[in-house]
């Protein structure tokens, strides 16, 4: 998530993200990325301006959602579909090709900070109800936040909000009772107590932590089967791994929600369609009401040439994302930073880019951060990786080292390019005398496995979290930062990076006062220092092309979601 704003005391703030890139209705053409006068990665919205309600959108997906529980979701796919059935205090509102803007959602505004910046207060709008007609209360939002602290239950709960609250030792409502860092003086008021002033706080409450959950309906891990809807749609049926159907929530009041158009009557998600089939169906317009949320629009390398066809280009939503793919080294199994550096030098990142579809689908990057983020600084670390492998330099680093004979690379089994990426790495590491074994991981469990003791030596991951708030912290802290108490690596820190000195500085930085620019610059500087030990290897900043059916309108690629923004689309009947 991203934002820039100085600390605003005792004021209501509307945090707007820095506008980068531009939008265009010009379709992509040629073999290179789509171009405008000066932006090779301009956005394209398919058939904008549609306002007719009705119809069904058929969403083709290669695998099921990892979860539908807003309290257990650190995934952009769940956040995308989630905006249809749950609402949060604030919302990251997408605009094609630009970082999103933080706007009020369940709350009347984006929040009021106390004079000392240590509390933020929100007031709920009138007329908010669940799918069963019962009112949404501030206590439900507090409970939704509280349950995300139960990390023994919810292994993938987002933690950026939690790390800002004065609640480092809280373990969730099931074992620790009430969350005292959040107060609800009445049914419409919720007050957050922070460890230190946080100028980006309004963006933190746009995350799924603040989706309301009535305590009486909490079924823990089973809540994913039917979370209570506070949004325009609710779950009609859910056959895991096969199909999910959303229908209109009769108790949603459009007068309280200016952010979601809610044009279609229904959404049907097919959850086990092979990516090659999705790609062919969308290219051929076999189902004019179809879209996909799969990354890169599920397009196969053999189909990308078709994007130059005018008829298909007109149906292709595209945009440069705030999302970056990286390779994570398991620093608990590959403990020597120089060995990790050597592995990075040996990688043929240009060949890896080809597996993503070439320059049309993203550009090589040497950083998890990008220059649209508040606090971004040019990499001070001498990341001497480039597109081509540097085998001589890699071999020199390995001289005299206890080099592992075998390493493992884990990949999501639903996406061919991630396996193909592994094949490239396999050849690269073979040149170093290392046998890289490819380990398929079921897509629905992928990030759960990466967070477990079964984490392989190397694994691909992507992060869009920095896109919604505009701050470097919301990329750095989750991915290489420490745990809430600062004693070990953070729960979504896939590489398990923990350095006594740097991690302690990150922990202290969470408790440091300053402006958004000042604090996020320090996060970027600590990121650059951490990268000297190569816990991760940045790969691709994603440019997504997603073909949609000919009856789909208002299709834009969400900068944060990395796929078609479900809150905006419509469909002809």
From TrEMBL:
Q: Which residues form the signal peptide?
A: 1-27
The answer, when asked if Lipoprotein is one of the entry's keywords, is: no
Would you tell me the Gene Ontology cellular component terms?
A: ATP-binding cassette (ABC) transporter complex; periplasmic space
Which SUPFAM superfamilies would you find in this protein's record? Periplasmic binding protein-like II
- Write down a Pfam family by its short name: SBP_bac_5
Question: What keywords tag this UniProt record?
Answer: Signal
Q: Which GO terms describe its biological process?
A: peptide transport
GO MF term list: peptide transmembrane transporter activity
Enumerate the spans annotated as Solute-binding protein family domain. 102-470
Q: Which InterPro entries match?
A: Peptide/Ni-bd, SBP_5, SBP_5_dom
For this protein, the record's PANTHER family field holds: ABC TRANSPORTER SUBSTRATE-BINDING PROTEIN (PTHR30290:SF83), PERIPLASMIC BINDING COMPONENT OF ABC TRANSPORTER (PTHR30290)
What name does the UniProt record give this protein?
Answer: Peptide/nickel transport system substrate-binding protein
The organism is Microbacterium saperdae
For this protein's source organism, the top of the classification is: Bacteria, Bacillati, Actinomycetota, Actinomycetes, Micrococcales
């Amino acid at each position: 998530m991203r934002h820039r704003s100085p600390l605003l005391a005792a004021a209501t703030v509307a945090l707007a993200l820095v506008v980068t890139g531009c939008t265009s209705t010009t379709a992509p053409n040629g073999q290179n990325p789509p171009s405008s006068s000066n932006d090779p990665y301009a956005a394209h919205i398919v058939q904008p301006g549609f306002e007719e309600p009705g119809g069904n959108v058929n969403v083709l997906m290669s695998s099921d959602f990892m979860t539908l529980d807003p309290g257990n979701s650190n995934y952009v796919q769940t956040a995308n579909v989630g905006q249809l059935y749950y609402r949060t205090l604030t919302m990251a509102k997408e605009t094609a090709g630009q970082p999103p803007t933080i706007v009020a959602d369940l709350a009347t505004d984006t929040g009021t900070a106390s004079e000392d910046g240590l509390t933020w207060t929100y007031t709920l709008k009138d007329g908010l109800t669940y799918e069963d007609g019962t009112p949404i209360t501030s206590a439900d939002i507090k409970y939704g936040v509280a349950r995300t602290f139960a990390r023994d239950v919810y292994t993938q709960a987002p933690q950026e909000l939690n790390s800002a609250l004065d609640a480092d030792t809280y373990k969730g409502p099931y074992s620790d009772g009430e969350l005292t860092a959040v107060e609800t003086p009445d049914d419409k008021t919720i007050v957050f107590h922070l460890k230190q002033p946080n100028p980006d706080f309004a963006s933190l409450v746009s995350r799924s932590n603040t989706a309301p959950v009535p305590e009486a309906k909490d079924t823990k891990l089973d809540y994913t089967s039917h979370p209570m809807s506070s949004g325009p749609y609710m779950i009609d049926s859910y056959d895991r791994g096969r199909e999910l159907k959303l229908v209109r929530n009769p108790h949603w009041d459009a007068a309280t929600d200016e952010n979601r158009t809610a044009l279609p009557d229904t959404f049907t998600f097919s959850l086990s369609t092979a990516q090659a089939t999705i790609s062919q169906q969308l290219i051929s317009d076999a189902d004019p009401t179809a879209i996909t949320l799969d990354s890169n629009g599920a397009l196969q390398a053999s189909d990308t040439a078709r994007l130059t066809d005018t008829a298909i280009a007109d149906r292709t939503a595209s945009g440069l994302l705030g999302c970056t793919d990286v390779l994570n080294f398991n620093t608990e199994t590959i403990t020597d930073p120089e060995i990790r550096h050597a592995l990075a030098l040996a990688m043929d990142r240009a060949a890896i880019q080809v597996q993503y579809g070439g320059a049309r689908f993203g550009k090589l990057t040497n950083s998890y951060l990008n220059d649209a983020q508040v606090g971004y600084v040019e990499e001070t670390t001498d990341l001497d990786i480039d597109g081509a492998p540097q085998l001589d330099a890699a071999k020199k680093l390995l001289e005299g080292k206890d080099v592992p004979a075998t390493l493992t690379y884990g990949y999501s089994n639903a996406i061919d390019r991630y396996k193909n990426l592994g094949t490239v790495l396999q050849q690269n590491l073979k040149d170093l005398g290392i046998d890289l074994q490819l380990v398929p991981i079921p897509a629905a469990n992928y990030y759960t496995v990466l967070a477990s003791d079964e984490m392989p030596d190397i694994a691909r991951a992507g992060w869009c979290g920095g896109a919604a708030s505009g701050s470097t912290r919301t990329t750095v802290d989750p991915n290489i930062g420490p745990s809430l108490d600062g004693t070990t690596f953070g729960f979504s820190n896939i590489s398990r990076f923990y350095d006594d000195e740097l991690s302690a500085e990150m922990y202290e930085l969470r408790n440091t006062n300053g402006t958004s620019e000042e604090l996020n610059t320090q996060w970027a500087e600590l990121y650059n220092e951490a990268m000297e030990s190569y816990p991760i290897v940045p790969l691709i900043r994603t440019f997504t092309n997603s073909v949609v059916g000919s009856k789909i309108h208002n299709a834009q690629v969400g900068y944060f979601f990395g796929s078609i923004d479900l809150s905006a689309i419509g469909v002809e009947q």
